[in-house]
Design brief:
The protein has 433 residues and is mainly α. It has four helices and no strands. It is rod-shaped and about 205 Å long. Residues 252-261 have a biased composition (Basic residues).
Length: 433
C-alpha cells in the first residue's frame, strides 16, 4: 500500500513538473509570438509613415507653394519622433524578452530544485528500504538462533534420556549378573555340602568296620595261641587291608574338618566381595545420578539464561524498530509538509508570474493599439485635408500621456505638439483637389 502511495506521489510530482515545463514553454512561445506580432505591427506602421511622408513630400512640391516648407520640417521632426518611439518600443520588447528569459531560468532553477528534492527523497526511501531489509535479516537471524538453541536443548534432553536408559540397562545387567553369581554360588555350595555329607558317611562306615576287626583280633588272640603265625599273617593282612583305610579315615576326617572351616571363610569372602561390589556399583550409580542432575541443572540454567538474553535482545530490537518507525514517520511528515509548502509556493509564484505576464501583454496591446490609432489619425504632411477629417484639437479624440514603461521620456507626450494652432491647413485645400 505504501509503495502504491509513493508511486502515486511520484507520478503526481512528475505530472506537476511536466505541467510546469509546458506552462513555461507555452508562455515563452506566446511571448515570442506577441513580440513578433508587435514588431510586425510597428514595421507596418513605420512603412505606412514612410509612404505618407513620400506622398506628402510629392504633394508639397506640386501643391503646397506657401506651406510646403513648413510641413516638410514638421514631417522630418515627426519622422524622428516615430523612429524614437519605435526604438523605445524595440528596447521595451527586448527588456521584456530579457525579463522573460530570467523568469524562465528561475523556473528551470525551481525545477532543478524539485528534481534534487525528488532525488533526495528517492535516496531516503532507498536507505529506509535497505535498513528495513537489514532489520528483517537480523530478525531472521535471531529466529534462527532461537530455533538452533531449541534444537540443541531437545538434543541434549534426548541425550540425557538415552543416557538414563543406558544406566538403567546397565543396572539391570549388573543385578542379573549378581543374581546369577548368587545362584551359582548357592548351587556350588549345595553341591559341596552334598559331597561332604557323602564323604562323612563313607568315613563313618569305615571306622565301624575297623573297630569290629580290633575286637575280633583280641578274641582270637585270647583264645588261640597256637595260631601265632596265622594270627600274625592275618594281623599283617588286616593291617595292610584295614590299616590303610584307618589311616585314610584319619586323614579324610582331618581334611573334611579343615574343608568345612575353609568353606565358611570362602563363603564370607564371597559375600563380602559381593557386598563391596554392590556398594561400589551403588556409589557409581549415585555419582552418575548426581552428575546427571548437575548437568541437567546447568542445562536448565543455560536455557533460562539464553531465553532471558533472547527476550532482552528481542525487546531491545522491538524498541529500536519502534523508534526507527517513529523517526521515519516524522521525517516523512516533515518531507510531505515541505513538499506541500514548496508546491504551494511554486503554484503561487506561477500564478503571480502568469498574472504579471497577462498584465504586460495587455499593456503592450493597448500601447500598440494607441500608436496605430495615433498614426491613422495624423494628417498627411503637406497633403490636402481629407473630407470628414476631424482635427484632434476640436474636442474629439485626445490621446492621454501614459507611462507605459519606466524610464520612457515623458516630455514628448504627443506628436500633435509639433503643430501650432495657427498653422491649420488652408480651408480651400480640399476643393482644389
Amino acid at each position: 500500500g505504501r509503495a502504491r502511495a509513493l508511486m502515486a506521489e511520484r507520478d503526481a510530482l512528475r505530472k506537476e513538473r511536466e505541467d510546469a515545463h509546458r506552462i513555461a514553454a507555452d508562455t515563452r512561445a506566446s511571448i515570442e509570438m506577441e513580440a513578433m506580432k508587435q514588431r510586425r505591427e510597428l514595421q507596418a506602421i513605420v512603412d505606412a509613415e514612410h509612404k505618407h511622408m513620400e506622398e506628402g513630400a510629392h504633394g508639397g512640391h506640386v501643391h503646397g507653394h506657401g506651406h510646403g516648407h513648413d510641413h516638410g520640417d514638421d514631417s522630418v521632426e515627426s519622422h524622428h519622433a516615430v523612429h524614437h518611439e519605435f526604438d523605445q518600443q524595440h528596447h521595451n520588447i527586448h527588456a521584456e524578452m530579457e525579463e522573460m528569459k530570467a523568469t524562465q531560468e528561475e523556473l528551470e532553477r525551481d525545477l532543478q530544485e524539485q528534481r534534487k528534492l525528488l532525488y533526495a527523497k528517492k535516496k531516503l526511501r532507498e536507505e529506509m528500504d535497505t535498513e528495513r531489509a537489514e532489520q528483517k535479516r537480523e530478525e531472521e537471524r535471531i529466529e534462527l538462533e532461537k530455533r538452533r538453541l531449541k534444537e540443541e536443548n531437545e538434543r541434549q534432553r534426548q541425550e540425557q534420556l538415552r543416557w538414563a536408559e543406558e544406566q538403567q540397562k546397565m543396572m539391570h545387567e549388573l543385578m542379573n549378573q549378581q543374581r546369577q553369581l548368587r545362584e551359582f554360588t548357592m548351587e556350588s555350595l549345595q553341591a559341596e555340602e552334598a559331597a561332604l555329607q557323602h564323604q562323612d558317611h563313607v568315613d563313618l562306615h569305615a571306622h565301624g568296620h575297623d573297630h569290629a576287626h580290633d575286637h575280633d583280633h583280641g578274641h582270637d588272640h585270647g583264645h588261640d595261641h597256637g595260631h601265632d603265625h596265622a594270627h600274625g599273617h592275618a594281623h599283617a593282612h588286616g593291617d595292610s587291608f584295614y590299616g590303610h583305610d584307618a589311616h585314610d579315615h584319619g586323614r579324610g576326617h582331618g581334611h573334611g574338618h579343615h574343608h568345612h572351616h575353609g568353606h565358611d571363610e570362602l563363603h564370607e569372602l564371597e559375600y563380602e566381595l559381593e557386598d563391596e561390589e554392590i556398594r561400589k556399583e551403588k556409589e557409581f550409580v549415585e555419582a552418575e545420578k548426581a552428575a546427571m542432575e548437575k548437568a541437567r541443572q546447568a542445562l536448565l540454567a543455560e536455557k533460562e539464561r539464553l531465553a532471558q538474553e533472547a527476550a532482552a535482545e528481542l525487546a531491545a530490537e522491538r524498541e529500536r524498530l519502534k523508534k526507527e518507525q517513529e523517526e521515519e514517520r516524522n521525517s516523512r511528515q516533515m518531507f510531505q509538509e515541505m513538499q506541500k509548502q514548496q508546491r504551494e509556493a511554486f503554484a503561487a509564484e506561477q500564478k503571480a508570474f502568469m498574472e504579471e505576464l497577462m498584465a504586460q501583454q495587455q499593456a503592450l496591446r493597448e500601447q500598440a493599439k494607441l500608436m496605430s490609432s495615433m498614426f491613422t489619425a495624423m494628417p498627411m504632411m503637406g497633403a490636402p485635408q481629407q473630407a470628414g477629417y476631424q482635427d484632434p484639437r476640436a474636442g474629439g479624440y485626445t490621446p492621454k500621456p501614459r507611462d507605459y514603461h519606466a524610464g520612457y521620456d515623458q516630455r514628448r507626450t504627443s506628436h500633435y505638439d509639433d503643430f501650432p494652432v495657427e498653422e491649420a491647413p488652408p480651408e480651400g485645400a480640399g476643393e482644389e483637389e
